[in-house]
Amino acid sequence: MKKIIFATGNQGKIKEIREILSDLGVEILSMKEAGIQADIVEDGKTFEENALIKAAAAAAEVQEEDTVVLADDSGLEVDYLNKEPGIYSARYLGEDTSYEIKNQNIIDRLEGVPKEQRTARFVCTIAAVFPDGSTCVTRGTIEGYIGWEPAGENGFGYDPIFYVDEFQCSTAQLSMEAKNKLSHRGKALRAMKEKLLDRQG
Questions:
Q1: pLDDT tens digits, residue range 14-54?
Q2: First and final CA of the chain: distance in angstroms?
Q3: Which of 60, 102, 103, 197 maximizes the CB count within 10 A of its CB?
């Protein structure tokens, strides 16, 4: 494995991925950096299916040998809202709706709901497509609850409204280091790192 291409255009995500996978000693590129323009239709019914769809679509465009393609699908599940927004987290309330609006909508829908019923989790699945065409998927979750107001500047997406009891703050208030340790993406990435190291032998 000489190179990893991660099927995302999200620079915040790529930064997190590079930090966690840094000790693999391979070049890590985003799809854009690798010059890949795959038209990906995420029509899976689960996080796992969508991650595999993305990874396979990007892998089909890869020319170089010995390149592993990774893709993730992640989202927020709010139990009180029947696990919404779930796999539609990025497209919730429309493709171009800002997260400020999405976050406020979730807070508004939980108005008057006590803390014990505000349970939620971030889910992340990561799919890998290897040069020989084989695949694997890892999953990571972090449990928490939806707060009463957004807080913090360190995260993106739903981080400002997702609170973790252990730290008594939102995931957007955690340092990058603390967040990587406990985040759903961090857990899924570390599990994937084990699989990549196994294959490296």
A1: 888 898 898 888 999 999 999 888 778 889 999 999 999 99
A2: 11
A3: 103
Give the range of the structural domain holding residue 46, as residue numbers without chain letter: 3-200
Please state the domain count of the chain.
Answer: 1
123, 77 contact by CB (below 8 A): yes
Catalytic option among 66, 72, 73, 132:
73
By the 10 Å C-beta count (0-12 exposed, 13-18 middle, 19+ buried), 43 is classed as exposed
CATH number assigned to the domain comprising residue 195? 3.90.950.10
CA angle 26, 30, 31 (to 5 degrees): 120
Q: Residue 146: in which H helix or E strand, if any?
A: strand 135-146
Contact between residue 38 and residue 13 where contact means Cβ atoms under 8 Å apart? no
What's the pTM value of the predicted model, to 2 decimals?
A: 0.88
Nearest to 131 by CA among 72, 69, 87, 44: 69
pLDDT digit string (tens) for 146-182? 999 999 998 789 999 999 999 999 999 998 888 878 8
